[in-house]
């Protein structure tokens, strides 16, 4: 039996497993099967908490298709709260990701605030086929597109087209659409690389949208991002640093039977 916790970061859901003792020898097949909805626990991704020599802990993060992700904003908040609830770290902590060291702070209730890695590779307002977009890496790559009507976007068609477009090869990109609500609020939708579908929220995508909107639309920090789940994320842009705040809720804890991944 493998103990796990199911958590949700504003609609982005994850399976978290304490693997500091290295007892779980996971692989792509295990990850894909456990993350498959209806047949197993189901999630957008899975996070293994492991020991670190330079921080409170490190994570091994995988998308639901078994691919490795360098960073995940909503996942980072869930990992931080999981570590705090399981006495792995205090209210302020640091942990290792492939994108660098992440700093996190447990706030009131279920809220967690994390400092994301330094954004890079920013390109504003260029065309890819019929799409006018901007691009930035906020730990993972994001193509960002403004729209006047977020509800009318065919997110699966447009998202998949750009995610696999040769312009972003070979790694591909996440794709975010946003609509400005007022001078510090946007709505957003994301086609997420590795999940290969629209997700209910995306933390690094919220950061990408906020950075681009602060420049193209003069939005003011802190920026409120209304996700597809209807829940809100808050992005702080302070002295070239990017902070993400939002909820990280425990949904349930349990034990994986072998039948959850042997099918």
Walkthrough of the structure:
The structure is a single chain. This protein is α+β, with helices and mostly antiparallel strands and 263 residues long. The protein folds into two domains: 2-116 and 248-260, Diaminopimelate Epimerase, Chain A, domain 1 (Roll); 120-239, Diaminopimelate Epimerase, Chain A, domain 1 (Roll). 16% of the residues lie in helices and 43% in strands. It has helices at residues 28-34, 73-85, 155-163, 203-216, and strands at residues 2-9, 12-18, 45-50, 57-63, 92-97, 100-106, 111-115, 120-128, 131-137, 141-146, 174-182, 185-192, 197-199, 223-226, 232-238, 241-247, 249-256. It has a 17-stranded mixed beta sheet that branches. The protein is globular. It starts with a strand and ends in a 7-residue tail after the last strand. The mean pLDDT is 96.
Number of strands: 17
User: CATH homologous superfamily of the largest domain - what is it?
Assistant: Diaminopimelate Epimerase, Chain A, domain 1
Q: Structural class of the secondary structure composition?
A: alpha+beta
Number of spatially distinct domains: 2
CATH topology descriptor of the largest domain: Diaminopimelate Epimerase, Chain A, domain 1
Any idea what the radius of gyration is? 18 Å
Task: Output the CATH class name of the largest domain.
Answer: Alpha Beta
> Helical element count?
4
Characterize the main sheet. Answer: 17 strands, mixed
> What CATH architecture label of the largest domain applies?
Roll
Overall 3D geometry? globular
How would you classify the quaternary structure? single chain
Poorly predicted segments? none
* Distance between the ends: 16 Å
């Amino acid at each position: 039996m493998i103990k796990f916790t199911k958590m949700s970061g504003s609609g982005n859901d994850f399976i978290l497993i304490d693997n500091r003792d290295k007892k779980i020898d996971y692989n792509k097949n295990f990850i894909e099967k456990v993350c498959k909805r209806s047949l197993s626990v189901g999630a957008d991704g899975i996070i293994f908490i492991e020991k670190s020599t330079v921080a409170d802990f490190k994570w091994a993060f995988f998308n639901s298709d078994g691919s490795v992700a360098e960073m995940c904003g909503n996942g980072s908040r869930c990992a931080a709260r999981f570590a705090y609830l399981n006495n792995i770290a205090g209210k302020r902590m640091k942990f290792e990701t492939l994108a660098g060291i992440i700093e996190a702070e447990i706030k009131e209730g279920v809220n967690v605030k994390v400092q994301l890695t330094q954004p890079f590779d920013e390109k504003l307002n260029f065309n890819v086929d019929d799409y006018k977009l901007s691009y930035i890496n906020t730990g993972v790559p994001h193509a960002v597109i403004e729209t006047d009507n977020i509800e009318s976007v065919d997110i699966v068609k447009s998202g998949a087209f750009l995610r696999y477009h040769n312009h972003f090869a070979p790694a591909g990109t996440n794709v975010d659409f946003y609509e400005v609500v007022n001078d510090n609020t946007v709505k957003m939708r994301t086609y997420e690389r590795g999940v290969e579908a629209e997700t209910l929220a995306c933390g690094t995508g919220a950061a990408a949208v906020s950075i681009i909107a602060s420049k193209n639309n003069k939005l003011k920090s802190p920026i409120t991002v209304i996700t597809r789940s209807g829940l809100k994320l808050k992005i702080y842009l302070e002295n070239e640093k990017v902070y993400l705040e939002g909820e990280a809720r425990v949904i349930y804890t349990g034990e994986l039977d072998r039948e959850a991944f042997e099918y």
